[in-house]
Amino acid sequence: MRFLCLHGMGTNSRIFEAQTAAIRYGLGSLHTYEYVDGALPTAMAPGVGIISGLEDEYLQSLYEKYAATATAGQDKQFPRHITIFDSAPSTNFRVSKAVAFFTVNLSPIQRIIAAPFLYLAAAGWTLVLWLRLTADIQTRSCNHHNRRDLVSEARRTYIYTDTDAIVHPDDVEQHAREAEKAGYTVRREKFVASGHVSHSRKDATRYWGIVTSTWDGSYPAN
């Protein structure tokens, strides 16, 4: 397998744009490139890239910047690839999930102390979104994955669980349905009783079998 692995993507707008331009240069020659911790791209064997390890907002920025750096005659779509969503995306802001996200690495005592403040903050943010006082960045970021004008994709797989404390399975399934409506080839793989991004620890054989079959296309969409 050959991967396009993006690590250390800058949050500064100018840096991100420069990094995206470098990615465009590499992918433009139909090669898969590796961009590691701010270093220049290193050529690898020709192949299709998988983007992994990026939050939704970074992927959104990548798609937008990739389109923005297109010059005359260049395609604005991010090149054809496959996508594997592991415990993602979270399409709707939920108070309980937000609190779980911010307390995941806290001790039980720390969680008890922090919980009231986090619930209050999350409830306040829910009100802000309901009053439309700010843009719903989370929803906007998720929608970018299903924009055919920005994303050229061979197929995608959603790996998720019914016991994720951070991402609700209904959100993942909703996003998958929207992807199908947009014309993407979708596969769903739902694990039972595995945690957030813990599916490979639950069943490594199944997990890596899913990754392999997504890569080579040897599975039916569902």
Automatic annotation (TrEMBL):
Q: Which superkingdom, per the lineage?
A: Eukaryota
**What is the official name of this protein in its record?**
Serine hydrolase domain-containing protein
Domain Serine hydrolase spans what residues? 2-43
Question: Keyword annotations for this protein?
Answer: Membrane, Transmembrane, Transmembrane helix
What's a Pfam family this protein contains? FSH1
- The residues that cross the membrane are 112-133
Xref: InterPro entries = AB_hydrolase_fold (IPR029058), DUF829_TMEM53 (IPR008547), FSH-like_dom (IPR005645)
Q: Which residues form a coiled coil?
A: none
Give the matching PANTHER family: DUF829-DOMAIN-CONTAINING PROTEIN, TRANSMEMBRANE PROTEIN 53
